[in-house]
Amino acid sequence: PDHLPLVGRRAIITAGPTHEPIDPVRFLGNRSSGLQGYAIAGALSRLGANVTLISGPTSLEFPRGVNGARVETAEEMRSATLAALPADIVVCAAAVADWRVDHATNSKIKKQPGQSPPVLTLVPNPDILAEISAVGPERPRLVIGFAAETDDVEENAIAKRARKGCDWIVANDVSTGTNVMGGPQNRAILITEAGVERWPRMPKDELASRLAERIAEQFTDDAPI
Ligand code: C5P
């Protein structure tokens, strides 16, 4: 219905981990479940947005009404995300691997008795959030990144917002014991141009709804970012 605040707006969400191949059977990965990104995709869709979800490997089903693509690697996630532009809103919730193995092999690396283990050389992956934030005339009006930090969460998130060139950062404390990474709850600090908002701990789908509402506020006709 037309009274939903994000009708006519396009949103792209990246979510989940990436898997960076070592050989055909092994990869480098991380503990992201994709829950928070999927929840944000669903929440934006419920507010009327046309949502494209670019997902790394997860065990989750796409939320109702959400289209998109499943990818494996950071390079694939980057291509799929750029191909989905233009958009009004981009939320980079994926835990993109910072590095990939520079020469993944086409055959399985053999364990050779008596030989020393293989040495992996890593090279940096493209930074999708930074690239979208600097994309030029097609730059989405609102680009949102995440920051998973264990120490000095606020200071690091403020610095990350400046470094990446995005509009907002949603910062989480992922220290051991918080069970945020992979767990059902999250505690967020929202960093915007205007300052810092400390949100209480809440289920990830509730945080997603709240973030979607906060996003929608930016798209009432006269609201500045
Ligand atoms: O630099 P860091 O990985 O801490 O930044 C996290 C934020 O940047 C997240 O929003 C993540 O989705 C995004 N990111 C990205 N591409 C990368 C690394 C991070 O989009 N290669």
What do you see in this structure?
The chain is of the alpha/beta class and 225 residues long. It starts with 9 loop residues before the first strand and ends in an 8-residue tail after the last helix. The radius of gyration is 18 Å and the shape is globular. Strands 5-4-1-6-9-10-12-13 form an 8-stranded mixed β-sheet, sandwiched between helices. A two-stranded antiparallel sheet has the order 2-3. Helices cover 24% and strands 27% of the residues. The structure holds cytidine-5'-monophosphate. Cytidine-5'-monophosphate (C5P) binds next to helix 3 and strand 9.
Secondary structure blueprint with pairings:
Layout: E1 10-15, E2 20-23, E3 26-28, H1 35-46, E4 50-55, E5 67-70, H2 74-84, E6 89-92, E7 99-101, E8 122-124, H3 128-133, E9 142-149, H4 153-164, E10 168-173, E11 185-186, E12 188-192, E13 195-198, E14 202-203, H5 204-217
Helix pairs in contact: 1-5
The structure holds cytidine-5'-monophosphate.
